[in-house]
Automatic annotation (TrEMBL):
InterPro entries: FAD/NAD-bd_sf (IPR036188). It holds the Pfam family NAD_binding_8. This is Phytoene dehydrogenase-like protein. The lineage of its organism: Bacteria, Bacillati, Actinomycetota, Actinomycetes, Mycobacteriales. Gene3D superfamilies: FAD/NAD(P)-binding domain (3.50.50.60).
Length: 471
């Protein structure tokens, strides 16, 4: 019987292990932490019974994942839940732009920009199931649906700030810019539209869902599926050298590229070693979880219906803060992503105390305390927020990287999504999952299609490993 070792038990490591195990491979997963899941974990951080997601929290790319859809995770008690409004972007003065699952409902709220929003997204959303077959893997490949991909791909080449000029109103431009900011890149850089367009299109097709009971429930369902197919999981096993790896026909790493370079050392070809060692990481996330009595007192009540809220002001302000963090400067008013998962999943709350998730975009490896800056952004759009906070838990960029070593310097995207790394992954090759050593693969969020709980990096890498085993 063929065998495989997967190092790292995040969503991609589990996806790789499941893909291999379903094909009859004997699989062992080695996870350094005492709990599986990587960035897809949850826990009670502040008040007993109050559920907070550790990192991955809102899942527009995962809910439509072909890999996850094929597993029937409901058999293991897993459920998706959706908020009434996917995302809100409040503006100074009390207004807000709202992103609904429906393209038409979103367009209806954007006034004179509604027709432009519909023109940009209606077509790709209608073709998303075909489109996802091409965008949820390596970008450089022979497409299954070339015309569909070409129509979607043309605007992704633009800087997000340039594409946002399509919109005439500050609300529509800020709504698009806030989603594009998920790339943690200056918005005047080429291809910064790509992630924003991908997230919005996927969200319009499948919604910005949350996992019932916390993101940990997705990990638990994946682990149960792996066990069902005979896979073994060993937690508390930190791999630091190749000598620690059990004998196996294939090895896959759900790790940051620099960690893989350290583990494999001189087993790697020189060119591959150089690329992995010089892999570039992006800005960090400074996370603050709150326990809030009665919820956030948003000035605009529509923000109180949204599972995600972006606090960043208008497009110009978002662009300026993303430039600052990329340059290593901490802005006074950082871009803050807020999660109100309890609106879709009320079981996360305890009575009238609700878990509110947030993180600020900060420079890579930021060593300061951004807590007051985060609270300041809440107060800006929700006066009186501070008075409702009954507890909070802070995780700095350093603590993020200790909690999950893949988040180097607090980089929750597992690498800077510049043009080269977005297209190729960690090294310039048409085979981004291969490490240059036969039977050895990288399957983390550093590879295409990138970060998220969708599992496609792991599934794609495992497909290559299976092809190698069948030779």
């Amino acid at each position: 019987m063929t065998s495989a070792v997967v190092v790292g038990g995040g969503p991609n490591g589990l996806a790789a292990a499941i893909t291999l195990a379903r094909a009859g491979v004997e699989v062992t997963v080695l996870e350094a932490a005492d709990q599986m899941g990587g960035g897809v974990r949850s826990g009670e951080a502040i008040v007993p019974g109050l559920v907070h997601d550790h990192c991955a929290a809102i899942h527009p790319m995962a809910v439509g994942s072909a890999f996850l859809a094929d597993l029937d995770l409901a058999r293991h008690g897993f459920r998706w839940r959706w908020p009434e409004v996917d995302c809100a972007h409040p503006l100074d003065g009390g207004g807000a732009a709202l992103l609904h699952r429906s393209v038409d409902d979103t367009a209806a709220g954007l006034g004179p920009d509604g027709a432009r929003w519909r023109a940009l997204f209606a077509g790709p959303v209608g073709r998303f199931d075909r489109l996802s077959q091409d965008i949820m893997g390596p970008l450089l490949h022979v497409p299954k649906h070339p015309l569909t991909l070409a129509r979607f791909g043309a605007p992704t080449l633009l800087p997000a700030a340039a594409l946002a000029r399509l919109f005439r109103t500050p609300a529509a431009a800020a709504l698009f810019g806030g989603v594009a900011a998920h790339t943690f890149r200056p918005l005047h850089y080429p291809m910064t539209s790509a992630i924003g367009l991908g997230i919005i299109t996927a969200g319009h097709r499948h919604g910005w869902a949350v996992a019932e009971g916390g993101s940990q429930s997705l990990t638990d369902a994946l682990a149960a599926t792996l066990s069902e197919h005979g896979g073994e999981v060993r937690t508390g096993v930190r791999v630091t050298s190749a000598a620690q790896l059990p004998a196996a026909d294939v090895v896959l790493f759900d790790l940051a590229p620099t960690a893989v370079a350290d583990i494999l050392g001189d087993r790697l070809p020189r060119r591959a070693s150089r690329s992995l060692s010089k892999f570039r990481y992006g800005p960090g996330a400074f996370k603050v979880d709150f326990a809030v009595q009665g919820g956030v007192p948003w000035r605009n009540p529509d923000a109180g219906r949204a599972g995600t809220v972006h606090l960043g002001g208008d497009l110009g302000e978002i662009a300026a803060t993303e430039r600052d963090i990329h340059a290593g400067r901490m802005p006074a008013r950082p871009f803050v992503l807020v999660g109100q998962q309890y609106l879709a999943d009320p079981g996360r709350s305890v009575g009238d105390i609700h878990p509110v998730y947030s993180y600020a975009h900060v420079p890579h490896g930021f060593t300061g305390d951004a807590t007051e800056a985060v609270i300041g952004q809440f107060e800006r759009f929700a006066p009186g927020f501070r008075d409702r906070v009954v507890g909070m838990a802070v995780r700095s960029t350093t603590e993020m990287s200790v909690h999950n070593p893949n988040f180097v310097g607090g980089d929750i995207c597992t690498g800077a999504k510049d043009i080269r790394q977005l297209v190729f992954g960690p090294r310039p090759t048409l085979h981004p999952y291969r490490l240059g050593v036969p039977g050895t693969y990288l399957c983390s969020g550093a590879t295409p299609p990138g970060p998220g709980a969708h599992g496609m990096c792991g599934a794609n890498a495992a497909a290559e490993a299976l092809a190698y085993l069948r030779r």
